[in-house]
Fold each of these.
Amino acid sequence: MTAFYFFVFLAACGAAAATGSVFLPGAWYQSLKKPSWTPPKKAFPIVWTTLYVASAIAATRIAISDNPGPGLALWSLQIALNTLWTPVFFGAKRMGMGMIVIALLWLVMAAITVVFLQTDLIAGLLMIPYFAWIGLAGALNWRIWRANRNRNK
Amino acid sequence: MTAFYFFVFLAACGAAAATGSVFLPGAWYQSLKKPSWTPPKKAFPIVWTTLYVASAIAATRIAISDNPGPGLALWSLQIALNTLWTPVFFGAKRMGMGMIVIALLWLVMAAITVVFLQTDLIAGLLMIPYFAWIGLAGALNWRIWRANRNRNK
């Protein structure tokens, strides 16, 4: 069952990742004012691939644990919110709605990290970088949104 | 825990449903050739709301069952694919890629229906209309794609 779980969770991450290949940051995003601490463009695919693999491993560990329910329910919510964010921000260019989505995702990631840590230490630790990254991405969404109010839809 | 599960699964459905409010079928979709059996526009929000509520109830029943793992893993994959489809089809107007996403979703829905039926009869029955609807939506995606090849991206 371990391989089945890992494959299914990684496929769900693949669906979320696919949004990044469909809605690329184009001329619109390049033209936005961004803070100095914006990570270099090259970092994003590397970071996301690492986070998705870690997240799929963590979810697999929870799935085979004694109490998979709460963690997997929250995991399904985070992958839906994650899949939603890129089309909203880069597709529809709705930075304010993107902020709402990523703020919700950050709260859900906080809950997942706590629940995973309680169920399986390694699974919880594997989610911490993802949680931290959503915090950074959320701060970036906020700063870009506020610095480009005239560009809001 | 039942209320927690239902709320979390319904929130995940809400993320999927939000794509429909961001990427509305506009002038592009209206102008496409569609088969005679295309359901009326008004039907979609009513059908989807019903299917999402049924799907959240079904997932809740699986979450509180003796064997929640396999069903919830597949449920997280279907909600990610579902959230992906609307931005791909209506946002990016990529009908061919939409066909791939909905074909995968249909296969996952078939697996979910079987797994849910084995775990909890009512949960499985609650997924059958959703599975059937994805079959219809997939057939519609196919027909619209093939009838409008010149409009493909």
Note: The interface with chain A takes residues 1, 4-5, 8-9, 11-13, 15-16, 18-19, 22-23, 59, 63-64, 68-70, 72-77, 79-84, 87-88, 91-92, 94, 97, 101 of chain B (CB under 8 Å).
Amino acid sequence: MGTARGTLGLLGWLVLSLAAGWVGSRFAPGAWYESLAKPAWNPPAAVFAPVWTVLYVLMGVGAWLVWRRAGFSGASPALVLFLAQLGLNALWSFLFFGLHRPDLAFLDIVALWIAILIVAVLFWREDWRAGAVMLPYLAWVGFASCLNFALWRLNPGPAV
Amino acid sequence: MGTARGTLGLLGWLVLSLAAGWVGSRFAPGAWYESLAKPAWNPPAAVFAPVWTVLYVLMGVGAWLVWRRAGFSGASPALVLFLAQLGLNALWSFLFFGLHRPDLAFLDIVALWIAILIVAVLFWREDWRAGAVMLPYLAWVGFASCLNFALWRLNPGPAV
């Protein structure tokens, strides 16, 4: 693979990953989120944007490493599941911040966590570095799942 | 396989699973646990023993179904990992209630959850019913992981 195509590919995977983040960010926290009872271990709001930016860049690099080594057809289960987890990732923001449904968002984030785990294993088989860059993402979504669960249980009642 | 040997096998797997629970129960909640700050969604203490008893029975049935169909040598990765998750399960009680280390217990329970997920997949391949009976266990340990995390974060400071 030529260097130019490799570099273009990196840009493409980064843009794709960051685009999922951008779609999710269209459903921003607002008055509803402010009104929720939070667990004591809820991180400060300012933490989320920089953490997510780093994670989208890392996952884009991971997908690029796999694509560069095996091509889309050579690693299609891994890369298709990678695209699916991007969809689950953006869907979470819609369910939680858009629909105000922490219950549905929790189901989504559990499916997302399992998808990331499988993607990390499949990426690792192609290139251990591609698997390794998925691990901070896996850890963060695990934490976010617990946070989502706590927010759901601390705020019972109908969606508003 | 004769009926007698099949029935003995069921008893064996049930005893093994319940034994892991019994070992764990040697490290019972006491004054230290009572003193912990709890999240609002902490279940009543009376819930845990009946839930765990049902889960140990279900997992014993699952392992028995796989063992009956494939034998130990025919499903050794699944059954070895099943034994390993029993160890991680008992270890959790020791780390949490014995050592008063919610931090180490959290690492253990995350590993336990991943092990149960893999066991459920491997069991499902042998017999879908064996995979299905692992799902309540998977869900409960997922919930317990979040609870462990919340108890860790709500109670910072050195182990006592």
Note: Chain B touches chain A at residues 37, 39-41, 110, 114, 117, 142-143, 145-146, 149-150, 153-154 (CB under 8 Å).
Amino acid sequence: MTDADLCWLALNLVFYGPSAGTRRLLARFRTVADVFRAAPADFEGLRIDPAAVESLVSGRALGLAGRELEKVGRKAYTLLTLASPDYPGYLREIFDPPFVLYCEGDPEALRNPAVAVVGARRPTPYGRAVAEKLAGDLAGRGCVVASGLAAGIDACAHRGALRKGRTVAVLGSGLDVPYPWENRGLHREIAARGAVLTEYALGTAPLAEHFPVRNRIISGLSIGLVVVEAARKSGSLITAQLALTQDREVMAVPGNVTSELSAGPNGLIREGARPVASWEDVAEALPSPWRENLLARRDEKEENSGASLSRDESRLLEALPVDAALPIDELAERTGGSVSSLLALLLGLELKGAVIQHPGKEFQRRL
Amino acid sequence: MTDADLCWLALNLVFYGPSAGTRRLLARFRTVADVFRAAPADFEGLRIDPAAVESLVSGRALGLAGRELEKVGRKAYTLLTLASPDYPGYLREIFDPPFVLYCEGDPEALRNPAVAVVGARRPTPYGRAVAEKLAGDLAGRGCVVASGLAAGIDACAHRGALRKGRTVAVLGSGLDVPYPWENRGLHREIAARGAVLTEYALGTAPLAEHFPVRNRIISGLSIGLVVVEAARKSGSLITAQLALTQDREVMAVPGNVTSELSAGPNGLIREGARPVASWEDVAEALPSPWRENLLARRDEKEENSGASLSRDESRLLEALPVDAALPIDELAERTGGSVSSLLALLLGLELKGAVIQHPGKEFQRRL
């Protein structure tokens, strides 16, 4: 941790990330360290809160940063600042790159740009299946999948990626503030096999206004963004707009026009987003050399995953839809089997990764 | 019927429509009548079958045309030729306009360009619902819907249009050769309320090679073409290509990427076709003044169709999917009603136009 790193951390603690004020500030001073060597008069005309100026010139902000750094060290988190050689180059390019990235897990996961997979918090079984499959296929070919650890499509994207490779989650809260609660186990898995990131200080609550701001980091870390399911006027569409302003490739998964959650992606496609159905479509949409790299990679796990199924299992699998969840009673009616024998078969299929179980004993074939 | 009309009819009977040979022929002679006044030597170098030349110069072709005209008159069909003032102007513009249109019904239905709605012969309930709804909404606003009278999406488009307005069918056989057999009732309804067209002579069988040729007339009669569901490499995609070469607006209805029958439309969209979900989307895609005309028209039948439903009917309707057909047993299970009482309610809803019944007592809510 250099002095410059500490200065960026202090600036972040005072201003909670980039803003019009910090842009004016950084335009006036030659380096970030100069900000902390300045006299109160040097801040005149910048329209910066006097309390913030006080904190900067008094050394109080640097003191806070030192204590934050200690806490980060105790948690075994990593800090990347705009002064760090490891700060991702493609994230640095965006209009308002975060001053600081708190990282839980392996910062190496940020070396290459990711592909972001985002979408609705309450998706349909169709959206879940496509998000998980797409993320898994991309991750299996060495592509890191970025998302926001939200319920729904985000969680499916992370889970799908973890089955085959690595994934990165960007939070709207401090790393030590688990949110949403239901995804705390997923958070731990991502940290163990990829990275969980945030620009927010330890202990920061997941305020609603953080999420649109957080979204610029998800797209900023990525070379392309895929929207899987999203209602009209939803957060995912805002992320898509951000991705466009960042010159990222915007993709969307088309869906039935009778589904409200496909109105978002279909609308994006109408406005020029590229429709994608598979990892190959995503690869084709990416600029060189990412396109060629991805197309050349084999998914080794896929090739080893042809777990042999019994005849009963294969037959049952064929009766299950890929884009809907079927209640066990209806499955029994369709197949003529007893509920108890079906449940035994389904458990085996779930362990082999061929079936997804939904709450209420509803089942879906994994894509 | 003028002499020129009779000459076009004779030319059509000899050559079965435009071809490279007829293009060379028509390039040599000043008018179509001149073809029939020529000597055998005038045909030298045109690489035209000697038997065809014989038929033209001997007067035999004109004799055949005279007899065909009599038969057409007995059937109360109308003939439009390239020499008729009523021949549709926008169809005349295409590279190879038919010499003759046999018309059963009202040729007035061809006065303005249509919107074509085409697709798979064995569509899903989703495709059926969308085709019927789209065609009905367009027809209800005065737009003629063109299609090919095939099983599946074509039939749904014609039926949907007939509920609200007019539709035009283009055949790959003679007007008096009912094909496909299952649509002969639909054929009669279209003739009574719109027009059934073909360039093939009376008695011509529906040969497989006629259909791709026929498709240029469907798109040629239309200002825009909507593909609803289609497999990869299907006939509907060929029609879409034809429509593009004719400078028609090509539109497609996106669908779930897990559905094979949405691979065609989604692929067209990837290649630049406009995704459409509703009649408004179709209207927005059309050039002026068709766009403005369509957007300005009210669907009067829609406004009068708010048939009042009982509470039981409304509740049952809500339990029915719009994009799938639900077997009566599963419906009974979901709603807790008895099969017999449900069937009575469903019959009422079908009569009110709110429900579609599929074979095997499966039901779907009408979009």
Note: The radius of gyration of chain B is 23 Å.
Amino acid sequence: MKKFIPVLLAAACAVSAQAKIVTKSVEYKQGDITLEGFLAYDDAVAGKRPGVLVVHQWMGLTDYEKHRAEQLAELGYVAFCADIYGKGVLPKDTKEAGAEATKYKSDRALLRQRVNAGLDELKSNKFVDTKRVAAIGYCFGGTTVIELARSGAELNGIVSFHGGLDSPTPADGKNIKCKVLVCHGADDPYVPAKDLAAFEDEMRQANVDWTLIKFGGAVHSFTQPMAGNDNSKGAAYNERADHRSWAAMKLFFAGIFK
Amino acid sequence: MKKFIPVLLAAACAVSAQAKIVTKSVEYKQGDITLEGFLAYDDAVAGKRPGVLVVHQWMGLTDYEKHRAEQLAELGYVAFCADIYGKGVLPKDTKEAGAEATKYKSDRALLRQRVNAGLDELKSNKFVDTKRVAAIGYCFGGTTVIELARSGAELNGIVSFHGGLDSPTPADGKNIKCKVLVCHGADDPYVPAKDLAAFEDEMRQANVDWTLIKFGGAVHSFTQPMAGNDNSKGAAYNERADHRSWAAMKLFFAGIFK
């Protein structure tokens, strides 16, 4: 006889207790521009393993993304935080962040070059199985990983967490070679209904393998504790949606990294 | 040193190899009407465990739902297929099915009574932990489990697979006490955009804990092999969406049956 055990509890047990996470800053280039990313992997894992690119929100590459990379390393992946803005470019407030993000959102070609440089850097890591690679991103980074897909990059999948979904060139959806998961706050005021509808149409027209999850009660930035917890501001942390979207990402990875 | 193992593979290993699934038909009543449900559980599991109600699509309680109940029993749950139409009522074609389903869709009070009778029958099973109960349903059954929630029934969660989302009384959303997961085909022509929007508003207004997953490329009946594979008919099986929605359901159960 056995006792009932919820099936997914067992998954938690599969995470090693002997994880030894190595982290370091890594300089790399896009054209003449020096970028500074952040690498994390578990030194106790042998051999090649899937790689996951992490793209930062509008404040640039912060401890938040570094912590996500460490969490991914604990799951057994090689994680690399891309730097889109350039070494030392860290907006000091939301005004600067808006200006910096807009540079790239209004020049998608440049944004694609920057994020592809990060992907190349990740793939060049000796521990990465280059046939099993994904990218995730938060807010601005969510938009960025969708642009990575639209650039025709070779990877298995992308996950956008509360990213903007608009595209100035929706026909580029046809370039997408990877699976797409969008984790979206159902009450996110920064992603208008028309953008959602246009995104869905882009995916549909291009016959992309896509899934979109709407988390009830969640607004923009729902994965980010630093956003506070006041939904009326339009951006706020939502623990429930944070945990569920992370679990959805793990399930997505289990599917694409078979 | 350890090799990389995708985290969720471990979950599969948690399913017992010694499962001994017991199944049987069960007569029960709603008022004076005799209903005939179907019970499935694993005889190798000791003690009480969560219970899951399964509600059939418009053709009535068929082998399809019985197989789902067996799959749920293999996961360790007590599964019970409700009978909404009544003992021996099995539409012989889609015309009869449409007429039968319409009886209940146009009399939501009766539909709620019928599905609550099934829930009561499940809860009366000696192996069911009545504090851990969910309901799932397909097409007409998806609509039905949402009505079950709207009736104010005491259970932990419901999952609708390609169910209709409309409500003649959207204010009843305020009665919902359980968590709600909707698995929806992004190309389902039988659930108009206005119904989706109204459903989301109903959940929002009532402050329900809800999640909606849109599966790209999927139409109505995407979990049902008997629907064929021609999307142009508006109802078709989609293996990808079937497997992913089942996995999403398991993740949802892991959350509500803690």
Note: Helices of chain A lie at 9-13, 63-74, 94-105, 108-123, 140-150, 193-205, 239-256.
